[in-house]
Amino acid sequence: MITLPFAARTDGLVGSVIDSSTSLLAAQTHDIVRFAMGSPAPDSIPSQVLAALAAEELTRPSSYDYAATEGDPMLRSALLESLRGTSDETTDDRLTITAGGMQGLDLACKLFVDPGDLVVVESPTYTGGSAVALSYGAELLEVATDADGLDVDALEEAVAAAGRAPTVIYTIPTFQNPAGTTLSPPRRERLVELARRWGSMVIDDDPYALLRFAGTEVPSLRAVAGGDPLVFSVRTFSKTVAPGLRCGWVDADPSLSPLLINAKQAMDTCANMPAQRLVARFLAGGYLTEHLATQRAVYRERKAGMQAALSRHLGDRARWTDPDGGFFLWVTLPGVDTQELFPAALAEGVAYIPGQAFSPAGHFTDALRLCFATTDPERADVGVGRLAAAM
Ligand code: PMP
Prior knowledge:
Aspartate Aminotransferase, domain 2; 13 helices; four-stranded antiparallel β-sheet; binds 4'-deoxy-4'-aminopyridoxal-5'-phosphate
């Protein structure tokens, strides 16, 4: 038996239950209501507009060249324009175009996480984010959340108990994945204050802020931090345009740009050029603004539809959240092990992500995440009915 010379860091490659469900579901041959993946619904992908833009753009040989590592100028300027007036308004020297949000998270950890460093994650947290931190050898410190997002008092206590400052605080501040909660403005202030005190970087992973369908806008963490370089913002077009384009951006202090460029050159040279050009044209043509307005209305209706289905089929056997935007409902089924329930649910024809996947410490065994974005109210009713049958 040959022993291969694996790097020690392979111990930190834990994978993602969410991503693996793409192949698990593709292998099923029966009808399944898919509440598992956090993707826009097929009917929410602006494929006709993208195809028309592709017909214009993708006949040009230059659309297939390498792009500048920091991103194609066409996309960068369209992006700057589309962010004007939003809480994410920024400047060109802060932008790096990435292969989706995941690459932004990878770049952040590559720059700031050494093996053994303490990285704060929310409990529950997005599995992709914790997986990236683990892949760089982080020690995770899981801190409770409540209806207002990360519990900043609990954070202060947890760090005091750990006896050392975290290198990174990883937060999904708006319509959190998976809990759907939003970090309140006072907590945003406090989080930035604590990070300043500890000398920690805040990874501000906020893919859903533009998908608000109720309530009022809150300032981004970067806006709260003013010119302070400690906030590293990761953004993506995966939820607002299409995930398969693998296109996103990092907004970070300009002093980080040379390192980000070097790190990205050692990874993939540049983001996919045809995808960058398509997104650039989508933004510059004003389609994103239109598309977001439609999508917000769709998701508002789908959230309500999913909640109505939960009331109808599960009534007092379950509790669920009421997010003002994003894609997810976080459902608690007291007394039910949702991991154990999963094979029965899949056999009944419904898929979700068990709560435990969102907690490196293995909490939330009685919870699950449902993506409401993918299914219309009728289909959500079928899916939740199947979930009740599996229970
Ligand atoms: N962060 C969060 C909170 C997410 O929900 C997602 C997508 N599920 C990502 C990052 C990854 O985004 P992308 O698909 O653009 O890599």
